[in-house]
């Protein structure tokens, strides 16, 4: 064999070897390529396709069904408002002597916020106290009865009146005789009669006073004195209240969110201060009629505040049975705790509200679901084999579905690669797949 012939044979052998290698690549690789294509992202509900029965097993990722509590949610916007806020005004128009807190200061209930001039009110209290003491003394005297000295003095007055009466009686008798003998005029007799009448009246009055003094005060008099004492007590309370009203205190604990007062100014009828308690925040959201009947009072909510990048849990505290004025939506009140006071009144929140719920149900990822002719199905993976199974979806959200029939807890279903499966096809499972 010459050199030229050897070169030709070598080239032929090389060509044959190349064709054999190419044929092996084309026939061996398609199954692997087919298994990886179309299975990339779960989530979309596609339709399974018929695979070549002679192809190699299809690679898939699986998810496992589990039993748990399911919720579906909507997200709405709401504005934060203080749960408690009190406006402070004063009925007294007088000068401010001191302001003890400033805007933004934290205060406790009954802290002294503003003081008004008390010079006039102090005098009013002193006068009311004096009037009360006098009324109490008068009532005590009436209740305890007269002193012995007072009775003795009145008895002496009675004796004096009696002596005077006897004297005038004797005088009148003499004047009467003299008049009969025409020694005196009729006018002189009348003067004697008048003196006798006056002496009789004085005696009767003294006797009556002595009788009353010994008997003590009458019920009517005691009632009158008790009424005077009560009026004196009320006047003192009124004076003390007026004094206390000049010391303006905080009605709740919170933060001074508004203040319109300066020492030396005269207080007006306008709002003087506002105390805001933001330890609890109230949110109001307006909900469509499509979801209002899905909400429940007491249900847990989540509120995310973008301005402070924090999420808080709270609860629904009130659901209105009627739409708000000028709106076609229903007001829903929610409450969250704000112990660090980082949420301020007026901040906006994105609130998640539960609109559907189911407890102790079988749940699977949406990545496993397929749909055909309006019906849902999945591929159960067991013993490296895909088994098509129809399922009924009871509730669902973006991530999960509640299966009411066709699936048991703990079963594994194809997710990534599910569109490439058919009933009975062999599969290889890869790591991955979440619940």
Shape: rod-shaped
- Helix share bin: 25-40%
**Whole-angstrom Rg:** 53 Å
CATH superfamily of the largest domain: Helix hairpin bin
CATH uppermost class of the largest domain: Mainly Alpha
> Topology as H/E string?
HHEEEEEHHHHEEEEEEEEEEEEE
Span from first to last CA?
72 Å
Determine the structural class based on helices, strands and strand pairing.
Answer: alpha+beta
Spatially, the strands of the biggest sheet line up as 2-8-11-10-9-12
Signal peptide: 1-28
Domain YknX-like C-terminal permuted SH3-like: 366-428
Domain CusB-like beta-barrel: 283-355
Pfam family, one: HH_YBHG
Describe this structure in words.
Belongs to the membrane fusion protein (MFP) (TC 8.A.1) family. It comes from Halanaerobium congolense. InterPro entries: Beta-barrel_RND_2 (IPR058792), HH_YbhG-like (IPR059052), RND_pump_MFP (IPR006143), YknX-like_C (IPR058637). Keywords: Coiled coil, Signal. GO terms for molecular function: efflux transmembrane transporter activity. The chain is of the alpha+beta class. The chain has four domains: about 30-70 and about 360-430, conserved putative lor/sdh protein from methanococcus maripaludis s2 fold (Beta Barrel), CATH 2.40.420.20; about 75-85 and about 275-355, Efflux pump adaptor protein, beta barrel domain (Elongation Factor Tu (Ef-tu), domain 3); about 90-115 and about 245-270, RNA polymerase II/Efflux pump adaptor protein, barrel-sandwich hybrid domain (OB fold (Dihydrolipoamide Acetyltransferase, E2P)); about 125-240, Helix Hairpins (Orthogonal Bundle), CATH 1.10.287. Helix content is about 35%, strand content about 35%. It contains six helices and 18 strands. It has helices at about 5-30, 30-35, 120-145, 150-180, 185-215, 220-245, and strands spanning about 60-65, 65-90, 95-100, 105, 110-115, 245-250, 255-260, 275-285, 300-305, 310-320, 330-335, 350-365, 370, 375-380, 385-395, 400-405, 410-415, 425-430. The strands form three sheets. It has a six-stranded antiparallel β-barrel with strand order 2-8-11-10-9-12. It has a three-stranded mixed beta sheet with strand order 17-1-18. It has a three-stranded antiparallel beta sheet with strand order 3-5-6. A hairpin with a 2-residue loop joins strand 13 and strand 14 (about 375-380). Helix 3 packs antiparallel against helix 6 (about 220-245) and helix 4 packs antiparallel against helix 5. It is rod-shaped and about 170 Å long. The two termini are about 70 Å apart.
């Amino acid at each position: 064999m010459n050199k030229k012939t050897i070169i030709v044979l070598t080239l032929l052998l090389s060509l044959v070897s190349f064709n054999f290698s190419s044929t092996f690549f084309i026939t061996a690789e398609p199954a692997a390529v087919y298994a990886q294509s179309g299975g990339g992202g779960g989530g979309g509900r596609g339709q399974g396709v018929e695979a070549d029965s002679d192809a190699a097993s299809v690679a898939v990722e699986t998810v496992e069904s589990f039993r748990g509590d399911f919720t579906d949610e909507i997200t709405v916007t709401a504005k934060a408002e203080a749960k408690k806020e009190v406006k402070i005004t004063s009925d007294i128009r007088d000068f401010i002597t001191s302001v003890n807190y400033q805007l933004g200061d934290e205060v406790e209930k009954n802290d002294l916020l503003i003081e008004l001039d008390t010079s006039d009110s102090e005098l009013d209290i002193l006068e009311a106290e004096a009037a009360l003491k006098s009324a109490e003394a008068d009532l005590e005297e009436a209740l305890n009865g007269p002193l012995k000295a007072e009775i003795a003095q009145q008895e002496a007055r009675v004796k004096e009146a009696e002596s005077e009466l006897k004297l005038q009686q004797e005088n009148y008798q003499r004047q009467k005789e003299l008049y009969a003998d025409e020694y005196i005029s009729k006018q002189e007799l009348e003067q004697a009669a008048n003196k006798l009448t006056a002496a009789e009246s004085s005696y009767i009055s003294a006797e009556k006073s002595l009788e009353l003094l010994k008997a003590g005060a009458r019920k009517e008099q005691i009632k009158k004195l008790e009424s005077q004492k009560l009026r004196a007590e009320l006047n003192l309370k009124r004076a003390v209240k007026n004094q206390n009203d000049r010391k303006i205190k905080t009605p709740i604990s919170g933060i001074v969110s508004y203040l319109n007062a300066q020492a030396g100014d005269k207080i007006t009828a306008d709002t003087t201060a506002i105390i805001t308690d933001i330890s609890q925040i109230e949110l109001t959201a307006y909900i469509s009629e499509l979801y209002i009947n899905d909400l429940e009072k007491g249900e847990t909510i989540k509120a995310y505040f973008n301005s402070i990048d924090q999420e808080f849990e709270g609860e629904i505290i009130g659901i209105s049975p009627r739409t708000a004025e000028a709106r076609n939506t229903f007001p829903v009140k929610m409450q969250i705790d704000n112990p660090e006071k980082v949420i301020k009144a007026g901040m906006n929140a994105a609130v998640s509200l539960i609109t559907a719920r189911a407890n102790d149900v079988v749940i699977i990822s949406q990545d496993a679901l397929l749909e055909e002719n309006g019906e849902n199905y999945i591929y159960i993976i067991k013993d490296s084999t895909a088994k098509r199974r129809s399922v009924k979806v009871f509730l669902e959200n973006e991530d999960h579905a509640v299966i009411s029939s066709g699936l048991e807890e703990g079963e594994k279903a194809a997710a990534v690669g599910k569109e490439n499966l058919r009933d009975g096809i062999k599969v290889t499972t890869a790591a991955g797949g979440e619940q």
